[in-house]
Amino acid sequence: MKKVITTVGTSIFTKENEYKKNIEVTYRDIKDKREKEWKNNEKSIGYIKDKIKNKLNRDSSAEIKSISLLKEELKEELNVYFICTDTIASRLAAEILKDYFEKDDSINTFFTPEKDVIDDLQ
User: Fold this and answer.
1) Is the pTM here over 0.90, yes or no?
2) Beta 2-8 vs 78-85: how paired, if at all?
3) Which residues in the chain show pLDDT less than 50?
4) Which helix (H) or strand (E) holds 116?
5) At what angle are helices 42-52 and 88-101 packed, to 10 degrees?
6) Per residue, what are the HEC states of 52-94?
7) Which residues does residue 66 pair with via DSSP β-bridges, in sequence order?
8) At residue 114, what are phi and psi to the nearest 5 degrees?
9) Beta-sheet pairing, 107-110 with 117-118
10) How do residues 99-109 score in pLDDT, each as one tens digit?
11) How far is residue 38's CA from residue 114's CA, in Å, rounded to a whole number?
C-alpha cells in the first residue's frame, strides 16, 4: 500500500467539462471566499455538488487523472490524503474528490476539514 499526499486545486470547477456551464455563476460566487464562510454558503455548495457528482470522469480534474494514473502504474492499493487551502472552493473540491474515489475499493481517501484545511496555504 502506498501513501499519497496531495494538495487540492480547483481544476474540477474550471476545466472544460460538460457540467461547467451549469456551475459557472454559482462557482464565481464562492471561489474567492474563505473556508470559514462555509456555513453561510451551503446552498451554493450543495448546488455545485449536485451538478457535478454524477458527471465526473478521469479527465475531470488534475487530481483524478494523476491519482488514477498512479494506481495503474503502481498496481497496488493507495491511501490518498487531501490537503487544501482555506477557501470554500478548495475544500469543496476535496470533498467531491473524496466522494468520487469512494467507489474504488483500491483507493482509500482521507480528508477531515478541521485538520486538512490549511490556513494561509498559497
Assistant:
1) yes
2) parallel
3) none
4) helix 113-116
5) 40
6) HCCCCCCCCCHHHHHHHHHHHHHCCCEEEEEEEECEHHHHHHH
7) none
8) -60, -30
9) unpaired
10) 999 999 999 99
11) 12
